[in-house]
Predict the 3D structure of the following.
Amino acid sequence: MNLVATLSAIVGSDHVLVEAAAIAPYLIDWRKRYQGSAQAVVRPANAREVAQVVAACANAGTPMVPQGGNTGLVGGSTPDASGKMVVISLQRMNRVRAIDCDNDTITVEAGCVLQAVQQAARENGRLFPLSLAAEGTATIGGNLATNAGGTQVLRYGNTRELTLGLEVVLASGEIWDGLRALRKDNTGYDLKQIFIGSEGTLGIITAATLKLFPLPRAQVTAFAAVASLAAAARLLDLARAGAGAGLTAFEVMSAGCIRRTVTELPRVRAPLPLASPWFVLLELSDHEDETHAARVLETILSGAIDAGMVQDSVVAASIEQSQALWRIREGIPEAHAKAGGNVKHDIALPVSAIPAFVEETNAQLSARFPWIEPAVFGHLGDGNLHYNMGTSAGTPIAVAFEHEHEINRIVHAAVAARGGSISAEHGIGQLKRAVLPEYKSALELKLMHQIKETLDPHGLMNPGKLL
Amino acid sequence: MNLVATLSAIVGSDHVLVEAAAIAPYLIDWRKRYQGSAQAVVRPANAREVAQVVAACANAGTPMVPQGGNTGLVGGSTPDASGKMVVISLQRMNRVRAIDCDNDTITVEAGCVLQAVQQAARENGRLFPLSLAAEGTATIGGNLATNAGGTQVLRYGNTRELTLGLEVVLASGEIWDGLRALRKDNTGYDLKQIFIGSEGTLGIITAATLKLFPLPRAQVTAFAAVASLAAAARLLDLARAGAGAGLTAFEVMSAGCIRRTVTELPRVRAPLPLASPWFVLLELSDHEDETHAARVLETILSGAIDAGMVQDSVVAASIEQSQALWRIREGIPEAHAKAGGNVKHDIALPVSAIPAFVEETNAQLSARFPWIEPAVFGHLGDGNLHYNMGTSAGTPIAVAFEHEHEINRIVHAAVAARGGSISAEHGIGQLKRAVLPEYKSALELKLMHQIKETLDPHGLMNPGKLL
């Protein structure tokens, strides 16, 4: 029996796709940079079927590519061009297996769309805080495989910090049931941590037990103009001191980003004159009420204005106004895409290193490429910037792409020199695989390869990604 | 050159102890249950020396036992009786290497005493929240090796969640520099997670970069009488809904525990009549002020009283009163020790499973041992109970110890049946090593052994512990 027949016997022939038209959407990544090919796309219904599919592929020596919502930004979930790989789509595994409000946990299958997890929590009076642009399509399995970040990391952490337990199908086809719902468990190596963020290269995550939180009773949002990134960092410190964990978002964006967004997206308006070089979007979540939240925010902002950190500010007076402020921040990637895209970097640095990094790297890039125009925004509270480079008026964006490799090298070298990360939240996938050895020590790479060889000795789990 | 001479050449002969009197304190654990023996105790001054010591021991085929403050409760940091092992004490490595307030991080060497780390943070207007009974002696390296918990886990997480980066001397004698100060870094497997909680069996942690937090401006504490653990769990839910992350401690204790503590420790007084079976200690931390904190606490308590969750309560009106309330909770282990000790279990369960677990397991134990008297307290907010068993008046505690093995089996079986952990925060060490295979799946144990063999192929790192 050939592999496709074996797979059909496991999942049913309806769930083994081989026709070119049927498999096409699974072969190309979200940004349409990586076009692959595959023997088949298999859509198992449960962990047992995943285990049998993995065992069958392993038996045939066939490499496997796990795929969730296929919204990744680094080509981590699409196959190579060989046509030999099998894509294992987790999308049919979309059940909420259990929700335990008294323990503040939810157990979901890997193919659950992130928004569905958020909604299941909310229907039970709980918050699942992971939130990111692709949440309507991205699956929790993909979020786990890439340790997704998003806009609430400042308060709630990355996907890793939200995870209590995992169920994983190993490269051997065995199912590891690590679905614990415990906040403390010191009975040996914390195996789930090895799989989180491993981009499908060590096994296939089939389910997870995740933390829930009480729903805040109020959220207030403000938009503040600041003279510099250093001033933004001081405002962050003041806001954390004044609100503690109540500070649930602290996003920064350059005036240029906002200008571009307002121009490209008619639904977006600038809430303040764009007279400052940088703007901050702050969000406070509160467990008391709107009045209290507004008072805390007001105290922070007036302190910041008195201290000269903030030049101008506006506080959303309603949910609609708050959404309008968030639309600016969330519209930035779309606005830049409409304008032809730019050369992107998803970097992390110590927050203390960010002001000098941006100033010095901007200067270095401008000196080398006089036409360059930075479009910088991101999660300042997490030290995570989307440090993207476009072109100034009159220079087509194609010029930036021609120099993409050199721009990347300059940016990544500046990041590495300051102890930063060349991939804060998007992962490595295919996009940064070739450059990873330049920014990791040989010893760290050796350890990673040792782990890989231990857990996937035949190298069949998502080969060509990450390592 | 023999090993002791080689070690002396590395660290200086003053720092290689071989005399019986000098090495004695390093050979017995905190609870004085594990008396070992050793070739020598080595006290390296820095990571380079640790690396050379490890390489020398590896070269000689000599097993190594890393040791910090030697306050562990499971015999994880003392040598076996063979006399062949070398104890590597990290206590001389007690420097704070760096503190970065703008990034809210501190980098410390493994031998820093926990209290010194807390203090360095406080002197810089920051909070390092890890807090536990042995903090005046325990070192951060030991906290990392055991993924220590403590009283602030509810808000800030275990030691694992407080860690951004590690420096580790591997079994090969190589130094892995993973000292990153980043809140987001998705560039491959998160290697630090493998070493945290591995109890020295995979390498020796020599330094760490840890998260800091803004100092709360006020803390308020209350003591509440509840009719049942189920009522305590409902109070927890109400307090989380009303205070969010402001709820920084939620400790539960039985009336019996308090009675014993008041009897044994003259410095401790009961703040309420001990007319209820259970009591809760709640602490709220606030970034506004004392008045606001008191108002939030009052709202929670009056809601709980109205809903019938709380039968009686007292709020500390001063720091002294708050300390007096904490003295009750913190005095429990000492009071029981004075009274002859008891049979201890450090267990974790889903919070939702705790009321039935305690009721049913108490009943099961009483049916088997009519003289048994439970002494239960712990971190209810984390699902972590110190589920300890003493004897009722008239039965000497020695009777309980005679049946320790059977008591453990009954308790651990009840924990396992409800998806719990037999070691929530103390680890496995020597104490639970033999029983671990009964409560872990064969597959999970196999994965742990594979990791162990990959990172410590000759089995020289703290053998006889954990695995």
Observations:
- DSSP finds 16 helices and 18 strands in chain A.
- The mean pLDDT of chain A is 97.
